[in-house]
Amino acid sequence: MAGTGTGTGVRGARRRNTAGGRSGLTPERIVEGCIALLDEHGPDALTFRRIGGHLGVDPTALYRHFRDKDELVLAVADRLHGRVLDDFEPSDHWRATLQDMLTRNRLVYLAHPEAAVLSVARTTRRAAEMAGVEIILGALAEAGFPPDEAVKYYRVLVDFVLSWCGLEAAYLTLSQEARSGDENAWSREYAGAPADRYPHIAAAAPFLPTVTEEGNFALALELLLDSVELRAQRYAATIGEQRATAE
Amino acid sequence: MAGTGTGTGVRGARRRNTAGGRSGLTPERIVEGCIALLDEHGPDALTFRRIGGHLGVDPTALYRHFRDKDELVLAVADRLHGRVLDDFEPSDHWRATLQDMLTRNRLVYLAHPEAAVLSVARTTRRAAEMAGVEIILGALAEAGFPPDEAVKYYRVLVDFVLSWCGLEAAYLTLSQEARSGDENAWSREYAGAPADRYPHIAAAAPFLPTVTEEGNFALALELLLDSVELRAQRYAATIGEQRATAE
DNA sequence: CGAACAAGTCAATGGCGTTGACAAAAGTGT
DNA sequence: ACACTTTTGTCAACGCCATTGACTTGTTCG
User: Annotated DNA-binding ranges (chains A, B) (predicted)?
Assistant: First the structure.
């Protein structure tokens, strides 16, 4: 229950409900500072020393508001998670709703990879998360799935987007050298693969760099939703059949 | 390039092809020690000091075999990749080949969650990785895709299985408290969701705990391969059409 | 007003990756 | 066998990190 950090386990016991101490430092201001720092200087900049410097405050002052760095990162993640649904409007077709929502989810997470990496495997159980689950389950119900079927596809879609974002975010948090090395692997080393031992790689090598991250995600999501839609249609057909034979 | 660590950039210039120095320290022994350490004490245990302690060697001795920690992690990752292919036999149908290989990939990674977390995001560009890529591209070629199409589905399938394993592995490496807390979220807090605000969650709640990790992965993979197969058939049909009209 | 306590500061701890200087062992050429 | 070069393990140190305990200062409430 990371919350805003106001609660148990914070240095100096419980906090009064005032608007900041003598430096005007609040969990909200800290989280905002962290996001600014992440956006400006990258994931490696998220250290207590640099956050403190950015806010004009002693680094250890942050411990008055967050128990440790993990709680701080989760608070940042919470703030971002809310943004996914901030101005989200369900579409009139269930498939468009799912596609829009999952795509937005990815964009928000990838805007802040450091927070994403640490939070994809966690369940926050806060209001924003529940609202998102409700929307997805609603879309699947609209597709025609009964609850016991819907939960299966719900888990597939959620785990898919979370894990995919986790992978992309982890990649973004790599150091610059490691990342450029990995990127060169595709265009250089795979292109130089011996055609006798790796014929298919040799044939595919020219096209490997043409795949973009956005296109890759879009295709994966499209493949999944295609299958879900197909099964929804089949499910509806068998239900209709059962109804027809029952009458 | 990075290879086993024997190569450029390693402290002390190039190395002779002897079987270890005066302590019998080799890149292979180091990697094995790392995996043992990861399995036993988790991902945070992978520090030069602890590796050195585990191998009975000065921590900085590792720099004679690996330029930096990144290169070491890559070597560990490739060892895992290699285990996926150790006794793998391609099936006679391309879909079975893909399904078997990706399923094996998951099993190997989840057997060493700590190592998996560190390696899923990396492209190792070593032999084992290339062999796996070749198999997947070969299966897609067998499905009827030309290289420029095959690379798209290759990237989808690989990124899917890597990211999925990363998420599951990250979950397995969470502390016991965090994990049980997250598990309770599904059965307790979601079950107690107010039915007026979250009607679909309320309806689905009883079925949420019935989803297993294995079944979840199997379903996701099945959905993806269904779509890939469908597109392969459609692609073959349009090619046949073009041939028919060309004659 | 004064006691209680929150909130910021300071100094210090131990761990991390990494580096440079050094010593000992192992190979190499004569 | 000898001097040589190169490898490879060791040692001490640097700067960074998160985190802690003891302090000071400001705020707030009885």
Answer: 47-66
Domain A87-246 belongs in CATH node 1.10.238.10: no
Residue A57 CB in 7 A reach of strand C: yes
Distance B68 CA to C16 C1' (A): 13
Domain chopping of chain A, boundaries: 1-67, 87-246
Q: What is the ipTM of this complex?
A: 0.84
Protein CB footprint (7 Å) on chain D nucleotides? 6-12, 16-21, 25-29
Distance CA A103, CA A83 (A): 13
Q: B48 beta carbon < 7 A from strand C?
A: yes
- Rounded Cα–Cα distance for residues B20 and B78 (Å): 21
User: How far: A95 CA to D1 C1' (Å)?
Assistant: 84
User: Chain A to chain B, count of Cβ pairs less than 8 Å apart?
Assistant: 174
Residue whose C-alpha is closest to residue B37's, from B27, B26, B48: B48
Q: What pLDDT sits at residue B2? A: 39
| Gyration radius from chain B CA atoms | 23
Domain with residues B89-246, CATH architecture: Orthogonal Bundle (1.10)
CB contact under 8 A, A223 and B227: yes
pLDDT digits over A16-67, tens only? Answer: 555 666 678 999 999 999 999 998 898 889 999 999 999 999 999 999 999 9
Give B133's contacts in chain A (Cβ within 8 Å): 190, 198, 201
Instruction: Please indicate whether, in this complex, the C-beta atoms of B122 and A215 are within 8 angstroms of each other.
Output: no
For strand C, is any atom closer than 7 Å to the CB of A61? yes
Q: How confident is the model at residue B188 (pLDDT cuts 50, 70, 90)?
A: confident
pLDDT higher than 60, residue A188: yes
* Ramachandran area for residue A24 (φ above 0: left; ψ -120 to 50: alpha; else beta): left
In chain B, what residues touch A134 (CB-CB under 8 Å)? 197-201
- Which CATH number does A1-67 carry? 1.10.10.60
For the cut 80, the answer to whether the pLDDT of residue B174 exceeds it is no
Nearest protein residue to nucleotide C27 (CA to C1' distance) is: B16
Q: What is the mean pLDDT of chain A?
A: 87
pLDDT at residue B64, rounded to an integer? 97
